[in-house]
Every structure is written in C-alpha cells, then in structure tokens.
C-alpha cells in the first residue's frame, strides 16, 4: 500500500530553529514515510552565502524531504529552487505563512498573502526551472485580508500559475502586535475554510495545518482534505509518529520502540561529532521522546544535566539505556 500513498499524506512542518537535519534524522527513525520539511532558508542565504552546504546538506535517509524557501523575488526563488533540486530535494516549498518581524522586514512570509499576483509569479518562475513539485505553505489570510473570498482569490491565482500542492495553516496571521508564538495560538482556527477550499478546488492537492495533536484529529481531517501537516506536536511529542506508517501508509514494517530509536541515534551522533558540532545540537531535539510516559521528566533531566558538558557525546544515550 505504501507505494500508492503520496508522501504528503502526513508531514512534519518546517519550523525555524527546530527542523534542522538532526531533528529530521531523528524523525526519520520514527517514521520512514512521512514527508519532512527543512527550516525556511532565505534566497539571500543561498545566493549570497559562501557555504550552501551549511543550509542545504541533508542525509540520504531523510527522503522524502522538501526544501522551504523564503523570498519575494521570482527570479531569485527560481534560481534557488533549481539549486535545491540539484541538491536532491523532492519538493520546493515557498513560505507565505511566517508572520515574524524578521521575515516581514524582507517583504516575504505571510505578508505576501496581500500580493497574490506576485506569489503566482513566484510559483510560475520556480515551475519553469524545476521538475520536482512546487508547493506553497500559507495562512488562510492576514489582518485586512481575512475573508474566505480573499483566500479563494489567493488560491485561484497560484493555482492558475501551476502550483502542485498547497499547505494551509488554518489561522490568519496578525502582522502587527502579535509575536510569532502568539500567531500560532491566538487567531482562532478556521478548519472549515480549508475544507471549503477542497470543495471549491477539488483537483488541487490540499494539506491542512494548525493545532493538530492526535490521531483522532488527523483521521478526521483526512476525510476532508488530502494531507495533514503536524508542527509543534511533532516536536513536543515525536513518538506520535510511531503509528504514522502503519495507520496512514499501510506499512507492515516493524516500528521502533523508544529504546530502539535511542540505539539507532548512537552511531549517528558518533558520526556527526567526528566532523562538527556538539552533542546538545542533536540531543536537544529528542527531549520529548517520552512525552506523556512515566519517566519522561527523568529522561529530560538525565539528558539536560549531561548534554552541555564540553566532552558530551553518544555515551549519554548508552548510559541511559544501561539504567
């Protein structure tokens, strides 16, 4: 069954400072099939930076994986999309949802929802350069452009430009007065707007995002849209993805216990530390592995007490497993 189920069925959202290559490798141990997204990488970082490997490298185990780009220049985005395709990414995603001041100062992210024609140009430019899918992650609106009619118009434009798939965060973004964290919780969720988009654009692949935390919620959404993207819940409770492969991809492969996940991480940490980085760069991502389980607090304390020591390495996990 897995070969016939598209990877976007379940995905892990792009999250700045969180979905780096270490977290993605960790998540890939838990789920072999869910689609993973990079943190947003700006066109400036790629085109003006001296070390693209820092932003674009990933492990082959991370497939299927999408590169999320941030920018507002169709030409620059198209150039970066081609670079991303050449690196081996399976999808190019355009960020039209981030509400942070830093992103707005660059005139991209959620504020682009006010400029559907420009976003359509961005999509068309990228489509002209790459063969992999070009997708857009956006909000249902922004303050001042928050009606369903505004959303319908926005999606109409990018669909005409050839977008392959949209991921819709079911909240508007408040561009002034709310922090990015508040923008993830304060504006009310409007799932019905996303469901209506699927009815109005039945041939367009649509993934829903925002506030989804349980398998019951995932299953309900999948009766109305094509895919579900999980953000904070994937980071806070990564073992939620333990059941993703059998439930949504029909996989019969054996899933890993928490202890088996830790054992698989040991050689990865050893390999990474031979080249660069510190143990806490990896271990900070796994603190939620025992979320909701007896011993979760002890696990977090065991790691946090040890992972910032200068000499910290994979032996932290080896010692934990010997307890």
In short:
By secondary structure, this protein is an alpha/beta fold. Helix content is 42%, strand content 15%.
What does this structure look like?
This protein has 323 residues and is α/β, with parallel strands linked by helices. It folds into 2 domains: 2-248, Aldolase class I (TIM Barrel, Alpha-Beta Barrel); 258-322, Four Helix Bundle (Hemerythrin (Met), subunit A) (Up-down Bundle). The protein has 16 helices and 9 strands. It has helices at residues 21-30, 43-48, 52-56, 74-87, 101-105, 116-127, 148-160, 180-183, 191-200, 215-221, 232-236, 244-248, 258-275, 279-283, 296-304, 315-322, and strands at residues 10-12, 35-37, 41-42, 65-70, 91-96, 134-142, 165-173, 205-209, 227-230. Strands 1-2-4-5-6-7-8-9 form an 8-stranded parallel β-barrel, surrounded by 5 helices. Helix 4 links the parallel strand 4 (65-70) and strand 5. Helix 4 packs parallel to helix 6 (116-127) and helix 6 runs parallel beside helix 7 (148-160). The longest helix has 18 residues, at 258-275.
Provide mean pLDDT, rounded: 94
Output the CATH homologous superfamily of the largest domain: Aldolase class I
**Beta strands, count:** 9
What's the multimeric state? single chain
Distance between the termini: 39 Å
**Helix count?**
16
What's the helix-strand series?
Answer: EHEEHHEHEHHEHEHHEHEHHHHHH
Biggest β-sheet strands, sense, barrel: 8 strands, parallel, barrel
Beta strand %: 5-15%
Q: If you compute it from the alpha carbons, what radius of gyration comes out, rounded to the nearest whole angstrom?
A: 20 Å
Q: What level of helicity do the residues show?
A: 40-55%
List unreliable stretches of 5+ residues: none
Shape: globular
- CATH architecture descriptor of the largest domain: Alpha-Beta Barrel
Secondary structure class reads alpha/beta
